[in-house]
Amino acid sequence: MLLLDKSSKLPIYYQLKEIIKSKIQEGEYREGELLPSERELCVQYDISRMTVRQAINELQVEGYLYKVHGKGSFVRSNKIEQNLASLTSFSEDMRRMGRKPGSKILTVETLKANPEIAQKLGIHIGDNVLLLRRLRFADQQPICIEKTYLNANLIEQFDIFQTKDFSLYEYLQNTLHIKLARAHQTIETILLSGKDASLLAVMENSLGLLMERITYNEKNEAIEFVRSIYRGDTYKFVIELKATN
């Protein structure tokens, strides 16, 4: 059993939170399983109920646990699925799974396209692009850092401050009436470090996923190039394969 270090400078509730989180990640506490009661955890670790409650509350905020009134705290599935067979937004994926999407806007600016961005969007070097950089949340848990370059030849400006839970795809389709037709997407593994690890609330050199997507309209014009960095412990991509015969 993992033990608390009561001589440590780290708060006891934080140590307990990390122990429970570790047990969830290692599969000792499984998805949908009832966590030991607050009283049982108090006895097991010889700590106060207030300390246990603080640890559990933070795990709920971070998306590891959910409470059922009168029954206790249960382990939430910490894997969010995106179906690669469909062109959907982050917000759509979260709502489909019963989670609340959220965003924190980190950067909004107009840039001149460098050679890479110009090639991705099919525009000229030096053309204007709109950059939207966001930290994306599911149930208040940081999931993804999203850097979106928009083709300013097609989208001159947009009002991202209209709502706290701004969905770019909904805005493009419902407000600007741009129909998204298809996308080309690649995924690879990376290590999270520095500011990315800090924003996503993970340890240095934790496993992450880098997703790059170019989205096109009906005229086959590139609308956006997005580079997203996901926490490797919370996200998975799913696709259904069919036989060719």
Care to describe what's here?
The protein is α+β, with helices and mostly antiparallel strands and 245 residues long. 26% of the residues lie in helices and 35% in strands. The chain contains seven helices and ten strands. The protein has a six-stranded antiparallel beta sheet. Strands 1-2 form a two-stranded antiparallel sheet. The radius of gyration is 21 Å and the shape is elongated. The relative contact order is 0.12.
The helix tally amounts to 7
Q: What is the number of strand segments?
A: 10
The coarse overall form would be: elongated
Percent of residues in helices comes to 25-40%
The N- and C-terminal alpha carbons lie at a distance of 52 Å
Query: Could you give the order of strands across the largest sheet?
Result: 4-5-6-9-8-7
Indicate the mean pLDDT.
85
The largest sheet, given as strand count, sense and whether it forms a barrel, is:
6 strands, antiparallel
Low-confidence blocks of residues? none
Q: Strand share of the residues?
A: 25-35%
Work out the radius of gyration.
21 Å
Structural class: alpha+beta
Reading the helices and strands in chain order gives: HHHEEEHEHEEHEHEEE
Write the layout of secondary structure elements.
Elements: H1 12-25, H2 38-45, H3 49-61, E1 65-68, E2 72-75, E3 80-83, H4 90-96, E4 101-112, H5 115-121, E5 128-138, E6 141-151, H6 168-175, E7 180-192, H7 194-199, E8 206-217, E9 222-231, E10 235-238
Parallel strand pairs: 3-10
Antiparallel strand pairs: 1-2, 4-5, 5-6, 6-9, 7-8, 8-9
